Each structure stands twice: as structure tokens, then as C-alpha cells.
């Protein structure tokens, strides 16, 4: 569910979770109990802390930053792996 921001007439801001079909235009202020109107803000869906959203964020992030390994990490100093079989690549300068 998306998070919506509300602002009351006293100036308090608070966030609340509502489904998109059931979000009210006004809500009771959590600080002073007054009438708070919904504020139009940029959506921050990923700011939710539910496990489902964390899983979605992790899945989306892993598509761009895959953490793929082909072996278990060694206990000693890690040696650079050869990633190419082309002998011409051996002549390229090393960083
Ligand atoms: Zn208030």
C-alpha cells in the first residue's frame, strides 16, 4: 500500500498507509486530533518497510547489481579471476 502524507490546519505532518482505492481526502491528525488534508507528494512506495516491498526492492536491485558467484569465497587473499580466453586480452594494460 502506498504511503500518503497529511497536513492538518495546525501544521502537523504525518504519513498514513491506505490502499489507492480507499485513500480519504481528509483524516484525523495523529498529533492534535484536528482535520488533516491529504498533501500531494511524490510517491515513495519503496520507503515502506514491509517484507514484501523489501523483497521487491531487492529483486529489482539484483537485476542491475547481480551478486553472482561461481565458487565459495576463499579464506586467503583473493586472486583475480581470468574472465576471458582470448590471448590478445593478455596484452592489455593491467590496472
Ligand atoms: Zn495536527
TrEMBL record:
Pfam families with a match to the protein in the record: Zn_ribbon_8 (PF09723)
Superkingdom of this protein's organism: Bacteria
InterPro entries for this protein: Regulatory_FmdB_Zinc_ribbon
Coiled-coil region list: none
Residue span of region Disordered: 67-95
Domain Putative regulatory protein FmdB zinc ribbon: 1-41
Signal peptide stretch: none
Name of the protein in question: Zinc ribbon domain-containing protein
Amino acid at each position: 500500500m502506498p504511503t500518503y502524507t497529511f497536513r492538518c490546519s495546525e501544521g502537523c505532518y504525518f504519513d498514513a498507509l491506505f490502499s489507492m482505492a480507499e485513500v480519504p481526502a481528509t483524516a484525523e491528525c495523529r498529533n492534535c486530533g484536528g482535520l488533516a488534508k491529504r498533501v500531494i507528494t511524490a510517491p515513495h512506495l519503496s520507503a515502506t518497510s514491509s517484507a514484501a516491498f523489501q523483497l521487491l526492492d531487492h529483486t529489482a536491485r539484483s537485476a542491475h547489481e547481480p551478486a553472482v558467484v561461481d565458487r565459495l569465497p576463499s579464506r586467503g587473499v583473493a586472486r583475480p579471476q581470468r574472465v576471458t580466453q582470448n590471448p590478445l586480452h593478455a596484452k592489455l594494460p593491467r590496472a
